[in-house]
């Protein structure tokens, strides 16, 4: 049976889930709230679908974890190169969400992030459809995470 598991991250308002239930505290302390929410949401979606390990993880994001990029730029402006946080640097790339989910799950299958502005999630879903149709995957986790920033408001 082929499945596509889709999810949207939790909204910014409202209480956060109990992160400790899903993420070891030493790992969670180096993750942004958005990244922890994505990971918990992914695990909840997999649990609800009865899937322990997806064959593929696809993510569509317009801006990625842009708050980390903004912090790096602010730090460069205020402190020069000496003040850049390694955590912000590691988490500023668009593929951070999908790769973190894969690492936490131990998933060694296909993992891809799409970052084509408004078409990102659409492209991730299309890729999932193609993977399922060609038979190379039986289960695909498709996720998205975006939020409003100064840069995203037109």
Task: Offer a concise description of the structure.
The chain is α/β, with parallel strands linked by helices. The chain contains six helices and four strands.
Walkthrough of the structure:
This protein has helices spanning 25-28, 33-49, 66-79, 86-90, 96-105, 120-134; strands spanning 3-8, 56-60, 110-114, 139-144. The longest helix is centred in the N-terminal third of the chain and has 17 residues, at 33-49. Helix 2 (33-49) crosses helix 5. The protein is 42% helix and 14% strand. It has 6 helices and 4 strands, in the order E-H-H-E-H-H-H-E-H-E. The protein has one domain (3-144): Thiolase/Chalcone synthase (Peroxisomal Thiolase, Chain A, domain 1). The radius of gyration is 16 Å and the shape is globular. Strands 1-4-2-3 form a 4-stranded parallel β-sheet, sandwiched between helices. The protein has 154 residues and is α/β, with parallel strands linked by helices.
Write the SSE topology:
Blueprint: E1 3-8, H1 25-28, H2 33-49, E2 56-60, H3 66-79, H4 86-90, H5 96-105, E3 110-114, H6 120-134, E4 139-144
Parallel strand pairs: 1-4, 2-3, 2-4
Q: Would you tell me which CATH topology applies?
A: Peroxisomal Thiolase, Chain A, domain 1
| Arrangement of strands in the largest sheet | 1-4-2-3
Q: How many domains make up the 3D coordinates?
A: 1
Report the structural category. Answer: alpha/beta
Q: Which segments are poorly predicted (pLDDT under 50) over 5 or more consecutive residues?
A: none
Number of helices: 6
Distance between the termini: 42 Å
Strand content: 5-15%
- Total strands: the figure is 4
Assign the CATH architecture. Answer: 3-Layer(aba) Sandwich
* Major beta-sheet overview: 4 strands, parallel
Q: What is the alpha-carbon Rg in Å?
A: 16 Å
**Mean pLDDT across all amino acids:** 77
Helical content stands at 40-55%
Shape: globular
Query: Could you give me the name of the CATH homologous superfamily?
Result: Thiolase/Chalcone synthase
N-to-C SSE string, H for helix and E for strand: EHHEHHHEHE
Top-tier CATH class? Alpha Beta
